[in-house]
Amino acid sequence: MDIKTKINETFDKQTEFFNSHKTKDVKFRLEQLKKLKAAILKHEEKLEDALWKDLHKSKTEAYGTEIGLVLSDLTHHIKKIKKWSKPRRVGTSLVNFKSTSKIYPEPFGNVLIIAPWNYPFLLLIQPLVSAIAAGNVVTLKTSPYVPNIAKAMEEMINETFDDNYVSFFNGNREVNQALLDKPFNYIFFTGSPNLGHIVMEKASKNLAPVTLELGGKSPTIVDRDANIEIAARRIIWGKLINAGQTCVAPDYLFVHKEVKDKLLERMIFYIKKFYGEDAQKSPEFPRIVNEANVDRLEVLINSATIYYGGKIGKSDRYIEPTILVDVTGDAAVMQEEIFGPILPVMEFSETDEVIDYVNSHPKPLAFYYFSQSRKMQEYVLKRTSSGGGCINDTLMHLASHSMPFGGVGNSGMGRYHGKTGFDTFSNLRSILNKATWFDVPVRYMPFKDYVLKIFKLLMK
């Protein structure tokens, strides 16, 4: 069977299953979440091994940045799903006396989730958790760039769910094209802004709502009063997790000229502390996903002055942690999201210089600012915009169930994580239930002369 025929048949089966209304049963959803959690725990070792083969992620990093985050979100959904699924009573205006107003969360129906290669497990399965909790049937599409984890996830999903409920596809553009041609009720996509344009265009033909988790160049600013030791440690940690192949990694660094030398010194110290004198020999340092990206990063390294690092090992897809200085705004490394262990550094004298630079570019997915001054923290936040971010840290805003995660402008649209993820995959249906024992005659035509005065009194 060719892939297009298989996608068509699977889509029809899922539509039929959704129309049976079985997925709307909260008890059924809860059972599926528990099955998924048990499956992840059962396949945990295979998943970790696959992430090592594809991206050289250590078991600790694989668990801490992918598997553990999904399990945590699963536990949270299992605990809260009954509460979230209940109709939510809201206030009713005097105009609608006598009635009650409720919001009913209901599933969209057929949902498509497309995940990238950089966090292949997290960015496929975490949205799946919310989609299941909201009562949808789901089609999963993973990246062909990470074949080992794709195979491990496919085995886990197919073992756990019937494909009329949760289906799994892997492959190239042909598969993406065939999937995006189907009239899904909701599309959740994580990837580059360029591909985001294509997904949104395809979705528009069916007027399907979308969540686009994209990326961009996330700035990091270290002001003169920052705790330099903490800043150096947390910036290097955030930059080098997954060898910089993180959509919210610090993409470039602005540091106040008075503390620049000290910060550079301490960042090099922490590179060596985390990964040793030669990161290529470290079991903790991941690899670039493929040779094409190694070649791309090599060009970026050569676009400015190497302050530290720069070593490339093409045979094992290794890029050394690299710090670049003498960087200008028109350098190649400043024209695209880096997605690698390369940190371009620029200095500044006045904070407003950096704010102006950030605001003259597309809104980033994340924003990081290091300063001890509450006043400056508020000043900078009020004058910039981003999908999310941290004050005096990097990446860690992702680890909270309570905070929605997503982009703004070119870095994406829509939010998920925790209850926000449940709401994202739910149609929040507003229903007014009005009493029949009382009916206001003034609402009906023909209007009397005094009706307008009554409307103005009630509707101010």
Explain what you see.
The protein is built from 14 helices and 18 strands. It has helices at 3-19, 26-55, 59-85, 122-133, 147-160, 173-180, 193-204, 228-240, 260-275, 291-301, 351-359, 374-382, 418-424, 451-458, and strands at 88-90, 99-107, 110-114, 137-142, 166-170, 186-190, 210-213, 219-222, 252-256, 305-308, 312-313, 318-319, 322-325, 342-348, 366-370, 388-391, 412-413, 426-434. The strands form 4 sheets. It has a 7-stranded mixed sheet, sandwiched between helices. A 6-stranded mixed sheet has the order 5-4-3-6-7-17, with helices on both faces. α12 links the parallel β15 and β16 (388-391). The longest helix is centred in the first third of the chain and has 30 residues, at 26-55. The termini are far apart.
User: CATH superfamily assignment of the largest domain?
Assistant: Aldehyde Dehydrogenase, Chain A, domain 1
Helix content: 40-55%
- Name the CATH class of the largest domain: Alpha Beta
C-alpha-based Rg, rounded: 25 Å
SS-based class = alpha/beta
Count of DSSP-assigned helices: 14
N-end to C-end Cα span? 63 Å
CATH overall fold name of the largest domain: Aldehyde Dehydrogenase, Chain A, domain 1
Q: State the domain count.
A: 2
Q: Which descriptor suits the 3D outline? A: globular
Mean pLDDT: 96
Sheet with the most strands, sense and barrel status: 7 strands, mixed
Query: What is the CATH architecture descriptor of the largest domain?
Result: 3-Layer(aba) Sandwich
Could you list the spans in which at least 5 consecutive residues all have pLDDT below 50? none
Number of strands: 18
